[in-house]
Design a protein that fits this description.
It is built from eight helices and 13 strands. With 332 residues, it is an alpha+beta fold.
Length: 332
């Protein structure tokens, strides 16, 4: 492993965990390919880690030293430090940046994803005035850019949106007409907040449950279809607390990780209970799951390197999610 790859892995690992990570754990994960059995090897590895840590700090990556639950010295990168600072831009500047971000996103360059992230943060900031531009909170890159682009258009012009939506507890999708009030991203998943004309109430719609194209109402294109409710705050619609409080419906789930991604076991949205490591380097981890849907999505994000082995209910959820993806591909 060369230095650049090592620095990227170290930064990614510390960003993926919310708890301080000890040097010993980093030795078994990020630096596992480096020899560290003897005392001399451990000293050499520790010096390498100190050099890597200082190089990242010189690049502006803020690695903090904090105490673990056991009182040991650990390391963490605060995610909040990676948000761009608020800039006081005019509505015209925000619209211009939006156009530039869309053009750049389609350019196919290796930096189009990060650029899209930066532009969205510049254009839509939660501390900015929302009188001219709708509220968007940026966290990670969107999964469905076509749907997101249409929703942003509807937010910008305050136009009705129409799409078919499959709720978690529904067997079939239902067509919805929505007044889009805002957009936010929670743990990598995009959500639209708006008044649903079908349900007659303000609701959150998860973008990956939209099973059709998002249509923007083009009647009177220069006239807004609605006004934001007085005093509306998108932050009031978001369940910020994580992990959620323990409830009677929490379940235990077992996930099997291949050796290649075993280090990522503590990066997910569930409480780590126990683990078993096998001779081939693979890992079987037991979690306490409060949000099954989010947990399943997290596991699916690892592809073939992670699979849920228990309970049956979550295995069936994985199967249904994969079938839905296949159905979606067939209809496109």
């Amino acid at each position: 492993m060369d230095k650049i790859e090592r620095l990227i892995n170290l930064m990614a690992y510390l960003l993926d965990t919310s708890r301080p990570v000890t040097f010993e754990k980093l030795s078994d994960t990020v630096y596992k390919s480096q020899p560290h059995r003897t005392k001399a090897e451990k000293n050499a590895l520790h010096k390498m880690f100190e050099r890597d840590k200082e190089e990242l700090r010189d690049m502006g990556v803020n690695i903090e030293v904090r105490k673990t639950r056991d009182g040991e010295e650990g390391y963490v990168i605060p995610r909040g430090r990676y948000y761009l600072p608020h800039l006081d831009l005019t509505p015209e500047e925000k619209v211009a940046l939006t156009i530039v971000s869309r053009l750049f996103l389609g350019s196919g360059t290796p930096f189009s994803g990060p650029a899209h992230s930066a532009f969205l943060k510049l254009v839509f900031d939660e501390d900015a005035s929302l009188s001219d531009v709708p509220h968007v909170r940026w966290v990670e890159s969107p999964g469905d850019r076509e749907a997101l682009a249409s929703i942003l258009d509807g937010l910008m012009r305050r136009k009705y949106l129409r799409f078919s939506y499959r709720a978690l507890d529904a067997a079939e999708p239902i067509e919805r007409t929505v007044e889009p009030y805002g957009l936010f991203n929670r743990w990598g998943c995009w959500y639209l907040v708006g008044l649903c004309h079908t349900r007659k109430e303000t609701r959150c719609f998860k973008l990956d449950r939209i099973v059709s194209d998002v249509e923007v109402n083009e009647k009177k294109p220069k006239t807004a279809d609605f006004e934001l409710p007085q005093g509306f705050e998108i932050r009031d619609q978001i369940p910020w607390e994580w992990p959620p409080a323990r409830g009677v419906e929490d379940i235990e789930s077992v996930v099997h990780f291949t050796p290649r991604l075993a280090f990522a076991r503590e990066s997910g949205p569930a409480r780590h209970l126990s683990e078993t490591r096998y001779e081939d380097g693979s890992l079987e981890v037991t979690y306490e799951v409060s949000d099954p849907e989010h947990f399943v999505e997290w596991v699916l994000g690892f592809g073939a390197d992670a699979r849920i082995t228990a309970p049956v209910e979550l295995k069936e959820m994985v199967t249904e999610r994969l079938r839905g993806i296949v159905r979606g591909l067939r209809t496109r």
